[in-house]
Amino acid sequence: MIDKPEVSASAMWLTPLEQGIIRIGFADDGRELLGPVQKITWQVTEGRVHLETPFLIVSGANEELTLHFPFAGRIAQINEDLAAHPEWLNNRNDDLDWMVDLAIE
After folding, report:
1. CA–CA distance, 9 with 66 (Å, rounded to integer)
2. Can you list the alpha helix ranges (DSSP code H) found in 5-102?
3. What is the pTM of this model?
């Protein structure tokens, strides 16, 4: 299992949604590292989080990666459908491969 914040950071994309809300998604670097995603396991789904708090374990055919928050804030929303459809992380589609919306405080 890979549990390093620097590897985690390269496996995510970030985009602002509205004032103070950042959407975090799964990036191409993560797909290349893990291979086809087979399972996800949420580590935290609500509340305030700190920089580098682990929030999701993504298990692929080649490796397993723990994703860490790239900054502190409050979880505004998670993509609850990912638990039933981890394969959505296998292809770039910003409407499906997003993981969490974080409110910056």
Report:
1. 10
2. 5-10, 28-34
3. 0.93
